[in-house]
Structures are given as structure tokens and as C-alpha cells.
Amino acid sequence: MSAFVPLLDMEQAERLPARAREVVEYRKSGLSLNHIQGCPLDCAYCIRHTYGLWDQRQPRALMPDVEAVERLVSHRYFQAHVTPVQLLNRATDPFLPSVRPHTLAVVPEQVPTAPRTTCLPSLGTS
Fold first, then answer.
1. Mean of pLDDT values over 96-116
2. Is the pTM of this model over 0.90?
3. pLDDT at 96 over 70
4. Is there a contact between 111 and 117 (Cβ–Cβ < 8 Å)?
5. What is the signed CA dihedral for 4, 52, 89, 109, rounded to 10 degrees?
6. CA–CA separation, 27 vs 11, rounded Å?
7. Which of 55, 50, 60, 46 is nearest to 99 (CA)?
8. Where are the domains of the chain?
């Protein structure tokens, strides 16, 4: 699938803070897939500043959707049909117009292997 948001090149990705480069993140509640980062909404509750991304307002992809899903399902804590998965909930809104196609593309790729998928959209998008 081609990118709907600009894809960072290797040099741009390497300039990101280390935590921002983590595409799959372990959380007590499961795994979080965050291969797209950046959001123009500036929601008061946003946590992207904790990843050094507060000024990144334009969504950017760290890698293609298919590669992100491959990293998710090959993660050492991923268990098919067991591990809860959260999508794009760290540094973007999964339903921004430019991000939504990625959200919808990733869901069919990983839903057959995950018991539940959680998307946490902002209240400010349509």
C-alpha cells in the first residue's frame, strides 16, 4: 500500500528521539502500534510531547503499513488471538483525514490475529 502521509526517509527517522522510533511498544494492556506520528490538533491531553514530538504537527509515517504490521506480529510479546492491540494512540489521531486510510488498512491486516483492537480517536476530529 502506498503512503497517504509522507514517509520519512532513514535519515529523518534516525533524527527522531529513540522512544519515537519505537513502532511497537509494550504496555501493561497489550501492544501499541504507532508507525505514524504527528498531529495538528494540539489536544490538551495529548502525550506526544513525552516522545519528543510536540512540535511535529504534520503526520509522518516511519514505515509502510505492511512493515509495521510485520513488526507487530513478530514482536516477542505478541501472541496471536491473545494480545490486545492499540492502534495509533500515542502521537497522532487515528481518524485524521490523512491517517484514516492507514488505520483502516492496518486493521484488516492484524484483526485475524488479535482478540481486540483499540483505536483511541480524539474528540476533535470528524
1. 78
2. no
3. yes
4. yes
5. 50
6. 28
7. 60
8. 10-119
